Amino acid sequence: MKHILFQVPIWKENIDVSKIELKSSNFKPSFLSGVLSTFSGKNIISEEGSKYLGTKLKEILSNDFKIKQITVHHIWKNVYQNDFQDTHNHAGCHFSFVAYEKIEKPQTIFFHPARDLIYASKAETLFIAQNKFDVVENDLIIFPSYLNHMVSLTKDALTISGNFDIE
In the predicted model, what is the mean pLDDT of the chain? Predict the structure, then answer.
């Protein structure tokens, strides 16, 4: 009998990204790739936008977790204009999200937590080591913050990203 011992959940839901109402300024080249971002800039979310985002995050995760409260610790925008992002994760919180405000085709690639071991054991034909997640504009994806991911070369996209904990 087959048992799935470990799994990595990723949730996807189509939302109205404009209702997040995030006003961001001070875009500057960030991360190793130099993508334009407000990661360390100024990001102000309206009260209505914060409520909308919190409600959506809670609705999506409530089938899997009993949630008393969601605390968004950091939220920012990334602008891709023939840019990419290196492999990274968002350790230090439970979950992360990406809301696709503008995108032509999916460019976010997630990596299996044992990716290096899968390749080292030459098992990539048996186990999926990486996967490009299929998204469209107004999709919101939520994933465990420990999950390594990257953004491949992207011509024209705008995303809202954030990190949060659940209680």
Answer: 95
